[in-house]
Amino acid sequence: MGYLDDPENIKKLKKVFFTCLAILVLIDFIVPKHPHFSLERIPAFYAIYGFVACVSLVFMAKLLRKFIKRKEDYYDY
Amino acid sequence: MITSVPPAAIFIIGAFLIPFLKGKLKTAYLLLLPIIAIINLLNLSEGTSWIVGFLDYNLIFCRVDKLSMVFGYIFVIMGFLGTLYGIHVKEGGHHLAVFLYVGSSLGVVFSGDLFSLFIFWEIMAFASTFLIWYKKDKRALKAGLRYLLVHTFGGTCLLAGIMMYLYTTGSLEFSFIGINGIASRLIFLGFIINAAIPPLHAWLPDAYPESTVTGTVILSIFTTKTAVYVLARAFPGTEILIFLGAIMTVFPIFYAVIENDTRRVLAYSLIEQVGFMIVGIGIGTELSLNGAVSHAFCNILFEGLLFMCTGAVLYVTGTSKCTELGGLYRTMPITLMLCLVGAASISAFPLFTGFVSKSMVIQAAADGHMFIIWLALLFASAGVFHYAGIKIPYFIFFAEDSGKRPDEPPFNMLLSMGIVAFLCILIGIFPGVLYRILPYPVDFVPYTSGHVLSQLQLLFFAGLAFLFLITYGFYPKEERSTNLDTDWFYRKAGRGFMWFCNHPAAKFNMWIDQAFLKGARGFIWFCRNPIPTLGLWMDTAFVMFYNGFIWFSENPVSILVSGFYGGLHLAFAMVSKGLLKISSAIEKARDRAEKQRVFYKELIEHGPPGGDARSISSDLFIAFIVFAVFLVYLAIRYFL
Question: Are A58 and B459 within 8 A, CB to CB?
């Protein structure tokens, strides 16, 4: 039995993870920053960008797959 | 005082002893050689040495400055760790290829002239091909051949560029070149093929995952990084590199997300990471060049570590595909931990290598107010965490249980991976170790609260996105597939071209050949038949003409000639006849006169024969008297 086979453990890990997320957003208002671009002034810009980037990345990749996916032996004779 | 030799020499010359060694001696030799190389490297002093005259030029085998030394350090370190990782490999030829490859890479880094650079460049291409071929299956054979073709193409461009460069500048020195004219563009093209800059990148995800377990690790280290080195030396501040690099950081992520083979995912991540270096070189400021070089240094470590981990998994399970893996954390915890260090490093988590190098490039882009580039680099930073930081460990060690329960990989692999992981963390925590050896003085502090927070936000929320997509089933399922990339053009389109050659073009060719053949046959027939016929006619006509000419010259002319002579003869004859007649008349007259004289002589001497000479004179006298009487009569009648 691995550690992750127990759903309770997964729940615990998720809790830790979400707590981290909350802390990261909250201290965003305290930590001094030196923005180069106006976008960076948006509160928790990096958090939003990271999330949006990855979600859009996956959806675009799925779209891409429609065009470029071939069978595994596509190049074999 | 130990005199140092060119670092390339130790590996290249040392390599040829490998086939003669066996067993433990070979193992000891293989590990000792890189250590000697490291000691040798530490003894190198700045400046150029080992200058060998060749024709009219100087070949410089040992040009030591800060830029070449950074690459020199990491190459010999990884030469050692890569050898340690693959020490269990039995084939001597595999080690030989590795040593030649490492040696020629060092040769490129330390060569101070373009000619020796080119020679090492080519050795690199050929030696590395054998690392693919040693996988010894059909796919590897073909992939290796494609790999070799691409690199020899690049090498040819480079050689052509070097020749033209030599012709225009008269110098073989390898230093800043810059885009300026066709020669430099050809050299640039040769370099960017090895840097896997799109659309010339496809050889990398095509060939690297087909290589041997050790081979992929070694391959991931040298070719692209030597390309980064030569670009950093010859083309810093080339603006197009910024855009190419930015594209390079973004597009492989999409491929990596949907790719099934973990080693191919890493191959795409390698392109993406090299993209950061290329952007850094393109920006060309001291900060960005430091960023590019340090990222190359760090990338060799963490990319090598990740390839080592997936290689180890391939070694113990026989597969590197996500669809066939999962749940390995139960029996491979050490490998998992090492893999997580690599994942954290490539994702640039604070306290790991990627963070201290990649942030320099991003900072340089921000300093240059390149907004779009900056957004692309951030996107890539989030994306790389997504597929390399999460996907690789997740699908190998967690995800659905594949039921596989393999043991940890052999000790030498774990040791090698452990040392690399240690270096990843060491540099992550003490970046000064790395910053001290960079080409330019470093005025950059990675660990500011702002940097750390923004990076952590980016990564954690990218992680949240993954969790969200996996939980709600949006994440693309891992599927066995082949994803089309630009290698399609020389794999499928190339095959299409061959089909075109073998079918329509061949038919057309055959048709032309046949036409020619028919023509030739006809010609032969024509020569055998009508031409002799024609010749006969011509001969006949000629003979006839000739005969006619002979007839003509024999007849009318001779007629003319003979006529002329005949006429002449006739005239003479007539003249002579007349003369004859005249002379005979004269003769007759003379004879008569002679007869008269004889007669008168007889008459005078002897008197008239038979009569009186006076009788005749009396006749004449009478006649005279009659005539006189007649005249008197006439005279009287006239006067009267």
Answer: no
Can you tell me whether residue B176 is helix, strand or coil?
coil
Cβ–Cβ under 8 Å, residues B380 and B276: yes
Residue B278 in tokens: 């290329």
ipTM above 0.95, yes or no: no
Which residue bears the tokens 């006969």?
Answer: B536
User: Which residue, B88, B158, B173, is CA-closest to B124?
Assistant: B158
Per the listing, tokens 């070719």 go with B223
What is d(CA B587, CA B347) in angstroms, rounded to the nearest whole number? 159
pLDDT along chain B (640 residues), means of 10: 76 88 87 90 83 82 89 92 89 89 93 91 92 89 89 92 90 87 91 89 89 91 93 91 92 88 91 93 91 93 92 89 85 90 91 90 89 90 86 85 84 92 92 89 86 88 88 80 79 79 82 83 75 74 80 70 74 81 82 79 68 58 83 83
Q: What global pTM score does this model have? A: 0.79
**Which of A21, A62, A73 has the CB atom closest to B476's CB atom?**
A62
Neighbour tally for B29: CB within 10 Å: 15
Contact across the interface for A53 and B383, Cβ inside 8 Å: yes
Q: Are B96 and B133 in contact (CB under 8 A)?
A: no
Question: Tokens 């011509």, residue?
Answer: B538
Radius of gyration of chain B (CA): 58
Neighbour count for residue B287 (Cβ, 10 Å): 21
Contact call for A57 and B469, based on CB within 8 A: no
